[in-house]
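Researcher: I'd like a candidate sequence for this fold, 241 residues long. If you have to choose between options at a position, lean toward the conservative one.
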């Protein structure tokens, strides 16, 4: 199974330094259509959790994910996903409802940072039949730099808040902030409510993979160009694996 990881969807890139993790709405639409033209099937995270063996016979399947829960996921990504009838999972930060990207943009004034979804906006997003939510931790902290109590807080408190706030729209899946993990983080993850945890390592999700070390391909702005995306799929031997 191929899993792609997005962040921002914007008509005009607001911060040039994160151009590489931004795709335009038109680019996202082309991305989805290109995958389907290549004979790949985009599945939902709910389908993955419902399957006893999601990686079996899944080399032609794709999962789309978005990290951080930016406001543009509602304003720009959701209309595309609904128009294309394409499922996706958004990993959000319940400790930063209505906040901003302070982890990468703390040097900027609050008003100039990337805006995160408010609780009400997140509820609007979660009402879409094409959207499920997962946890990105509470505060977007590097899990490898935390002690056991703080790791447990990031895991368990985020799960509690999201499950209470969103019900069935929330699924027990986790994406490591920056993709960072350690052996201790994985050990504590195994004693958590989550069924899967996702990294940003470049590989297919294959049988035998640790469920708390599921790899994802990062999607870049140039991947909105069908020729670039097809070349990427071929380069990584993803089309005929």
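Model: Candidate sequence:
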């Amino acid at each position: 199974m191929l899993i792609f990881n997005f962040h921002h969807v914007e008509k005009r890139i607001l911060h040039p330094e994160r151009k590489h993790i931004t795709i335009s709405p038109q680019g996202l639409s082309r991305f989805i259509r290109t995958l389907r033209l290549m004979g790949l099937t985009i599945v939902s995270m709910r389908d993955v959790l419902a399957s006893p063996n999601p990686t079996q016979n899944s080399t032609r399947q794709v999962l789309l994910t978005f990290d951080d829960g930016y406001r543009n996921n509602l304003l720009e990504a959701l209309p595309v996903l609904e128009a294309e009838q394409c499922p996706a999972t958004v990993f959000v930060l319940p400790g930063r409802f209505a906040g901003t990207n302070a982890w990468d943009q703390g040097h900027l004034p609050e008003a100039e940072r990337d805006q995160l979804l408010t609780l009400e906006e997140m509820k609007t997003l979660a009402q879409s039949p094409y959207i499920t939510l997962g946890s990105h931790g509470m505060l977007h902290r590097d899990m490898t730099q935390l002690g056991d109590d703080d790791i447990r807080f990031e895991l368990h408190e985020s799960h509690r808040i999201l499950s209470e706030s969103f019900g069935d729209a929330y699924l027990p899946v986790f994406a490591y902030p920056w993709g960072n993990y350690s052996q201790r983080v994985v050990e504590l993850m195994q004693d958590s409510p989550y069924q899967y945890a996702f990294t940003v390592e470049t590989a297919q999700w294959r049988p035998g993979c640790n469920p708390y070390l599921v790899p994802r391909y990062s999607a870049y702005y140039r991947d909105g160009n069908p020729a670039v995306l097809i070349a990427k799929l071929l380069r990584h031997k993803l089309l005929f694996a």
